[in-house]
Amino acid sequence: MELQDKVLDYKPCNPVRPELFANSDMSGKEKFSDPKLNDPRYPGWILSCLSAREHQVTEEERKLELDHKVYKTGNTSQKVIFPTVAASWSLSRKIKLLPGRHYRATAVVKGEEPRNIRLQVTPAGRQSVIMRAAENNSWQTLTADFLMPEGIAEAQISVWGGKTTAGKAAWIDSVSVRELTRDGMAPEPVVPKVKLTGENRISAKSVWRISQASAKVKRLPDGSMEITVQENKALMATCAVKLKPGTAWRFSAESAPQMQCSVMLADGSKLSANKYSSGIVDFTSAEKEGSTQLRLWIGAQKPGTVIKIKPPTLFQIEK
Questions:
Q1: 2-182 and 196-317 share one CATH topology?
Q2: pLDDT of 249
């Protein structure tokens, strides 16, 4: 879905978390673990470009650099120009976000062919939101509000230009991604206070089944886990417990990167994490006898990523 920025009337928003897009100011000061993101000509980005004839553009035919003369904020911008060929280009990066949360992505851009410039947000495997610049040679801010779907924890942020004439430049002053609340949306929720009773039903000896057979799992004495991912696909850790039918419980877990908690009851019904936290599920066990499946889910990670999970807890809620 592509929109021109002026079509939407954006309501006032209140960012509730800090800046999530590294190298937001295009300064190149932040370094990335992925060497592909550390090219000094376009730091923090993955570049792709094709000529008008759909051929790969050579190093000699493209010129990307940090521009210390043309910028709106800070003291630099990202400049893109193809001196001798017409080409389409894209600068993109994937970032981790929390499922079920609202975010706002913005890009401050300027171009000699401004209508070619777009901001695109693509949650993994889902439909993109594309904001197109207006016919305006001044700096302009492209804004895309989006909701991360449940079960999706990664989005690709792209700034790109199509059919750019040879010798015509585009500049990116800054890119931002922040979680938000706004009029018409629920404010940042507060975790309900409940009285927990009894002992934690999850111990260091509890058995967790990992969906990736190749993943390397390290169990620590306090019940925490370190899972080293070997495959670029989603991972789920599952622990089965038997609970008294019809009793109330709080299942919680904290990890980096953040995983999402869910529960499958003995009767087969499923409950995802509550709106107030992706790491907490309050639930009542099924009236049917059987095991309750406690689940921790995280989207696809780069092989070698270490997921650190603090000791998960399962306490009964006193009614």
A1: yes
A2: 94
CB of 195 closer than 8 Å to CB of 317 = yes
Q: What is the DSSP string of 159-189?
A: EEEEEEPTT--EEEEEEEEEEEEETTSPPPP
Distance CA 279, CA 272 (A): 10
Domain ranges of the chain: 2-182, 196-317
Report the alpha-carbon distance of residue 78 to residue 191 in Å, rounded.
41
Burial 257-273 (b: 16+ CB within 10 A, else e): ebbbbbbbbbeeeebbb
The identity of residue 99, as a single letter, is P
Identify the band that residue 240 occupies on the pLDDT scale cut at 50, 70 and 90: very high
Q: Which CATH architecture has domain 2-182?
A: Sandwich (2.60)
What topology is assigned to 196-317 in CATH?
Answer: Jelly Rolls (2.60.120)
Long-range contacts: 189-194, Cβ < 8 Å, 24+? 189/275, 189/276, 189/277, 190/276, 191/276, 191/277, 191/280, 192/276, 192/282, 194/250, 194/282, 194/317, 194/318
C-alpha pair distances (Å), 163 with each of 2, 77, 129, 131, 224:
16, 21, 20, 17, 52
Both tokens of residue 308? 């650190």
Dump pLDDT digits (tens) for 250-265: 999 988 877 778 898 9
Window from 39-43, 153-157, 204-208, 233-237 with minimum mean pLDDT:
233-237
Is the predicted pLDDT of residue 149 greater than 70, yes or no?
Answer: yes
CB proximity list for 175: less than 8 A, separation 6 or greater: 21, 24, 26, 105, 106, 107, 108, 119, 157, 159
